[in-house]
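Amino acid ABC transporter permease: structure tokens wanted.
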Amino acid sequence: MSTPVDATATGPASAGPAGPETPEANRVSHPVRPGRWLAAGVTALILAWLGWTIAINPNLHWDIVVKYQFDRVILEGLWVTVQLTVASMAIGVVLGVVVALMQVSDSRVLRAGGMAYVWFFRGTPLLVQLIFWFNIALIFPEIGLGVPFGGPKLMTWETNTLVTGFVAALLGLSINEGAYMSEIVRAGLRAVDPGQQEAAAALGMSRRKIMTRVVLPQAMRIIVPPTGNQFISMLKTTSLVSVIAGADLLTVAQRLYLTNFEVIALLIVASLWYLVLTTVASIGQYYLERRFSRGFGATVPGGLRGRIGRNLRFPGSVR
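Answer:
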């Protein structure tokens, strides 16, 4: 006959149910990191010193900066910069999609053409391309429409009249951007599981519908972030058109400081506007990325996220 076991004699194993959790139990202890505190203090000291030095430096002529920050000429150049950026990116995205589709095509001729386009325009400096387009009249004094291979021309235009500084800048920026965008789009297309394309084909969908309804919507999640970076980079890259008198923000700032010799002050004016443009574009990129990232990654419940601490990041969660 078995002997009953005393519950009080079993030691820790017989402990009763745990009581309610206290706030101290959920609190995450953070180790003391003196190196981090030291680095943060040194960084704050350097930033404070730089700000103080810039603010009191009489050679920066802050009164000139304030005077020209909203000057009509500066704002006109700013508008040209915005136009160049938006138009160049729009054309570049279209070219990039077309060239990317050429590169993933089954046709060897189309693949070779797409690869040659990327090889040439991504392999030569953008500044060289801008100067080339600005001097295209040296090669083709006239641009016309007519029968190719020496046939009669229906209409002609003088190249110097047609290809202005703005047009040359637009050609150089957009065609160069198309080469980079094609690689971004191609990477997004390759990232989509081929099994989904096979399943769509098994359902009787055409290649065009598979691309527009299955592949591209999923590829956008990968294409959008680098495209936003390209747009921000394009805002600053437009400053290169100052070498061909493109009438952009930097060009008008240079024209002004060549007349009043306030070089640093007007460069600060241009830099502040570039910072404003890139900041606005960065905010737009953030919300656009979050929009296309919906439905991907796991979401951590708010209570659990609070328990495990703020230093841990989870895919798909918004901090």
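The radius of gyration is 30 Å. Residues 72-103 form the longest helix (32 residues).

Cheers.
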